[in-house]
Cytochrome P450 (Kalanchoe fedtschenkoi), 505 residues
Amino acid sequence: MAILFYDASIISPMILALSLLASLGCLFGLARRRQHCRPLTPWRLPVIGNLHQLTSLPHRGLYYLSQKYGPLMLVYFGSTPYFVISSGDLAREVTKTHDYNFSNRWKTSASRLLFTGSDDLIFSPNSHFWRQARKLCVNELLSTKRVQSFYYIIEEEVAELLATIRFSCQDGGSAIELGGLFLGLANNIVCRAVLGQKCTDGGNGDGTLGELVKQANELLTAFTFGEFFPFLSWLDNLTGFNKKGIQTSQALHVFLERVIDEHEIHPAASHADRKDFVQIITELQKNDMSGLQFTRDNIKAILLDMFLAGTDTSASSMEWTMAELAKHPTIMKRVQDEVRSIVGEEHKITEHHINRMEYLHCVVKESLRLHAPFIIGRQTFTDLTIGGFKIPANSNVLINSWAIHREPLIWDRPLEFLPERFLDRSSDYKGQDHYYIPFGQGRRSCPGAHFAVSEIEYALANLLFWFNWELPEGMAAEELDMSETVAQVSHKKLPLRLVPVPKAV
Ligand code: HEM
């Protein structure tokens, strides 16, 4: 502290210049060293590496490690290395500056089994096939215009959900479990858009498609030896993982094969604006209109992707949003007032109404900030440098959006549910705001974002318009358990049970 008593005028400019040069030299040296450095690796155990530090909630485990080891660290799950990114600034470097270089993904043990070795969209590297499949998705299957064309499916399925809830109200004041209803809704919407039929139709004795997709999702998130200890992959035979994978895959393929056959034998003379994905793909192939060439296995893989990526994700987002609203009655009231004042005396909510529900949009964004799927996997093509650290070619990279969505310098009171924050923040779902990436960013970002948000907003607006929602008797808002469990996405650990009270007419 003595330095505080020095008179600045007696420090010679020469000494200042020398110390400045020395500091610059140090910094330059450091920067040069970092260029060739690997990021820090948390202390790890032999064989299992850092697996024990992940805990049962890996996004949190990785977040706590990043607090100590920095926004870019290198962890080992078993013998497999992963680079973990936990800041929006670095995520931007990945998906903006080096988007192409980070646009690979790796195939997991489960994805190899489920897609029987065929390429799909989610797990394929950035290859000629992936670019074709991505073009098909973005331009044909999930474009804004196409989502508009199957908005009637969303409306019809939500109307059925409302009827089910009304029916349950006859019991007078009993709580219903919303998670299962939302999963049924999301399954049926995706199933009708993709295959032209409901999930529960025509299970062929192999279980309904909804059940098979659930099994497939469980496989995708199960622990496998092959993933983390490639030399022990034979153990996946002993655990029954491989057998279950093959059985689920076969049942799914039989189901999808049959639906495609049916479409070919009886091409539906449906309304030109109401084509399902199978129809769209088979017509494009037949008429060679798109230059897209896919094998039968590729088509089945792309269809399956829609279920794996598009059902559980939307359903759990709806459940989390309703849980946050039940936990925050003032916000519930504000969004409900907005919905009711915009819809007024009309008896049907339309897309046009939803577009005007500014606060509802904020509520959904905020819920996705806190609860969206949180770890995005990418793989590099070539050696590159990020944040001054070198990442070699073919490295697996994890972007922890859970951590990015809670960066304290970016988000005011980051752990709180505050939809208002989005009134002044121009974050969209396209990843323009690199601190807000529920649907990822860059060329591998989610092509189903518009579909998902349309479905979530329409379902929520209807639930809020037609019902008031109360907690089960005797439960206070503070007591609502918000702990999570992790499958492919973050789920509420305890199912959300609320009491619907029909709106007075
Ligand atoms: C709330 C709902 C959803 C969320 C939060 C979500 C989130 C994501 C995220 C984070 C990714 C990875 C992005 C990246 O690597 O940068 C992704 C990829 C993907 N999503 Fe979604 N998604 C949702 C719904 C949907 C829906 C409804 C569909 C289709 C029906 C869909 C289809 C896909 C596909 C095909 C990919 C892989 C894209 C590729 O690798 O090129 N998603 N999603």
Summary: The pocket of protoporphyrin IX containing FE is lined by residues 121-122, 134, 137, 142, 190, 305-306, 309-310, 313-314, 317, 372-373, 376, 438-441, 444-448, 451-452 (CB under 6 Å). Residues 241-265 form the longest helix (25 residues). The radius of gyration is 25 Å. The first strand starts at residue 72 and ends at 77.
